[in-house]
UniProtKB/TrEMBL annotation:
Keywords: Signal
Top-level division of the source organism's lineage: Bacteria
Domain FAS1: 69-201
InterPro entries per record: Adhesion/Biosynth-related (IPR050904), FAS1_dom_sf (IPR036378), FAS1_domain (IPR000782)
Cited PROSITE patterns: FAS1 (PS50213), PROKAR_LIPOPROTEIN (PS51257)
Residues annotated as signal peptide: 1-20
Name recorded for this polypeptide: Fasciclin domain-containing protein
Organism: Hymenobacter guriensis
Length: 206
């Protein structure tokens, strides 16, 4: 998986998508992607154990039951609230990646989140000539590891498939990723975890 180039990110920013939120909000110092005092192996084991304890009957998202026996894409296609995301993943050629063994953690914007983008922004990204930019935006929503909500810590930074980082904020039991709220957490699939968010995450300009 290739990281989008800086020029692609700047072009995406210039296109108007990042009109209000192009800059990054990252803190000066990075927190570890692992909970404090834990090794990577401990964190991975905790995530795996948490996933195993997920409800076997699944979690309802967009009027459909997301079950642990299906992969991330197979679950997502059944959600009426994620049709835009599914179409974007298919247009970007990332469906096979997200059907692969992973594991992945996907922060999945709802249809309403995509509708809140500037007018025409999504249509522009869905054009064939914008495929690389679209891949960059979508990869910014995917972490190449399995992360349950209980694994997230305030101030944490997670490295995405695009190579950029997203910031985790936890306050009063509520989780935010950059400026997006997690509205449904811990949707377990066979190859990863999905957390539904209410905004599209925009890659930094630099």
């Amino acid at each position: 998986m290739n990281k989008i180039t800086r020029s692609a990110a700047l072009a995406f920013c210039a296109a108007g998508l990042l009109l209000a939120g192009c800059g990054t909000d990252q803190p000066a110092t990075e927190a570890s992607t692992e909970p404090e005092g834990m090794t990577f192996q401990d964190s991975a084991a905790m995530s795996t154990d948490s996933a195993r304890m997920g409800k076997p009957q699944g979690v309802e998202v967009g009027g459909a039951r997301m079950t642990p026996d299906k992969d991330l894409v197979a679950n997502a296609v059944n959600s009426k609230e994620h049709t835009t995301l599914v179409s974007a993943v298919q247009a970007a050629g990332l469906a096979e990646t997200l059907k692969g063994p992973g594991p992945y953690t996907v922060f999945a914007p709802s249809n309403a989140a995509f509708n809140n983008l500037p007018y025409g922004a999504m249509a522009g990204l869905m054009r064939p000539e914008s495929k690389e930019k679209l891949q960059g935006v979508l990869k910014y929503h995917v972490i190449p590891s399995r992360i349950m909500a209980a694994d997230l810590r305030d101030g944490q930074q997670l490295t995405t498939l695009s190579g950029d980082k997203i910031k985790v904020s936890v306050k009063d039991g509520k989780v935010k990723i950059n400026n997006a709220n997690v509205t449904i957490s811990d949707v377990v699939s066979s190859n990863g975890i999905t957390h539904v968010i209410d905004q599209v995450l925009l890659p930094p300009a630099e």
